[in-house]
Amino acid sequence: MLFDQSVLVQTLQAYLPFLSYLPAQVQHHVRSMHLDLTPVFDSTSHEAEALNIRLSLEAPCISANSTLVELQLSYGNVPSQRYDGESLEALDDNGRLDLTIWDDERQSIRRWLPQRETEGDVVLAMRALPRHVDINTPIGPRSDLRKQHGGLLGAGMLMLPSPPTPDEVYDITVTWNSTGAPPETQIASSLGEGVITKVRSTLQAIQLSVFAVGPLRRFPADISESPDFAILYFDPDPPFDIPDLASFIQALFANMSAFFRNKVQQPYRIFLRSSPRAVGGAGFLDSFMLEYHHDQTVTQTETKELLTHEVVHNWPLMECTAGHRAVVGADCGWYSEGIATYYQSHLPYRFNLTNRPEFVRSLNGLAQAYYTNPTIGYDNEEASAKAWQDPEAQRLPYHRGMMYLTSIDSQIREASQGRKGVDDTVFELLERRRAGQRYDLRTWLDLVEVELGASAVDDYERMANGTLVVPSRECLAQYGLELVRHDQERFELGFDPTISFNTRRISGLVAGSRAAAAGIADGDELVGPHTLLWQAADDIERNMTMTLQRDATRYEVTFWPRSQKEVESWQWQSVDRA
Question: Number of C-alpha atoms within 13 angstroms, CB side, residue 427?
């Protein structure tokens, strides 16, 4: 049995963060939800090895054979905890509550159905186990529970079943039981730091939160000096300049909060997670998870750009509406990722956190990443459908959206004689989200149509259907820049990136490519660090370097991952005022 009689600690001050998505109107009675987390430590190594979970729901009133709770079977290519068989147990006022598991494969959701009507409150118990990963584990969304230098770190979305009521507001209490934990154990989540955190919100509060427990380090170390910002990590020697990173992100977040018109200063936490391979990250509620690998070189500047992109995700989002296009995300990914890509260059420069050469370099890197993308002709639906099979398709909405938004900004500035820009439309969409109103694609099109007329809808459809987006020459004239044609070679790695990087063996080598000319062959084993695909694709001058092995012989190879055939491309340059 997973139920026990442990007394949960009920001390320490509760922390109540402001959540920007809390609906303006709340039900007369707000039901409570209690999430109790108990880390399990190995008696010999004293390392955290599991997380016992108790989820208490106030009077859900679920009839027999209806959904009590549900959990995604996977997110992208990352499996959830799933809790097979009877590993998820339930009690209500009448005692044991037998559950039936029903998997909706089409929506990738597992549902638990009570075999009788529930009576009173329901308590669920389960044990979440860290996912085993190694160098051969395919890269995917950073949301699974993993071991970290004696601790555990993971997101709620793949380990916390929840009621099928995503829009209902709950009084949520998260309580940690650290009785018997090693003395160096620290606790933190996206919701706050400490044994008890409370929030009134929708289920997003726990689904989109990161949870961490173990020998956790904090910068700044003194929480009283920085209660609303921290970098949290387990690794005693992370490959970053932590103080410099903290200084940049803290200033960036404060400026962004003001820019996006926050009425209350939101907290923000960055969780670092070491990985056996690759570098990347994922945005969560008022937080970000940055995943790194010691042997993969990522500069401090690249790290700051990555974090800047993710910090933007705290505000301008677009609600996905699966009915508009067959593939979920096809009608909103261009905006959610495109606006974050747009602002990752613009806002640090506006806030004087980067200089002009850095700003122009960033803009041109993003522009060429769009124009030289081999999947540039995909429509938004095809790009979304192939996102986890083709990394270039996954990247396309980021840069396509950025160029489209640059074009829209220029058109709005011209139509309003400089009184408005795309910022104003972004703010309007954000305020509708805050007010609990629609903030989907239809809302966006209505807003830009007001500014630009019916042609705005045609512009969107052309972009969504894969037509090349080329803003006007004067689109960034406010910065003293002009967009000029500068054809460049299309990005071509020269082999299948998905199969090759996932299996760690070269596959799908393209005859005549620069990779082939460098001596790479199908079947070569990837045995050491290499230039990351996004590093090479975002920098037109970046070479791909790889350490490979063939017939027990290691060799290093360097080549320029481009196609040797130029495609239409544009770059920004300073206006010559002479």
Answer: 13
Measured CA to CA, the distance from residue 140 to residue 162 in angstroms comes to 23
CA dist 334 and 402 (Å) reads 8
Say how far apart CA 272 and CA 288 lie, in whole Å.
8
Average pLDDT over residues 284-305: 88
Question: 210-214 and 151-155 as β-strands: parallel, antiparallel, unpaired?
Answer: antiparallel
Conformation bin of residue 396: beta by default, left when phi > 0, alpha when psi is -120 to 50: alpha
**Can you tell me the distance from the alpha carbon of 135 to that of 547, in angstroms, rounded to the nearest whole number?**
14
Per residue in 178-227, pLDDT tens? 888 999 999 999 999 989 999 999 999 999 999 999 999 999 999 888 88
In DSSP notation, 428-488 reads HHHHHHHTT---BHHHHHHHHHHHH-THHHHHHHHHHTTPPP---TTTTGGGTEEEEE--E
Cis peptide before 130 (omega within 30 of 0): no
* DSSP 8-state class, residue 162: B
Look at residue 53 and give its three-state secondary structure.
strand
Beta bridge partners of 548: 526, 555
Residue 21 has pLDDT above 50, yes or no: no
- Asked if residue 132 has pLDDT above 90, the reply is yes
Q: In order of start, what are the domains of the chain with their CATH numbers?
A: 31-312 (2.60.40.3650), 333-344+353-483 (1.10.390), 493-560 (2.30.42.10)
- C-alpha span between 87 and 2 (Å, rounded): 8
| Cβ within 8 Å of residue 442, ≥6 positions away | 321, 324
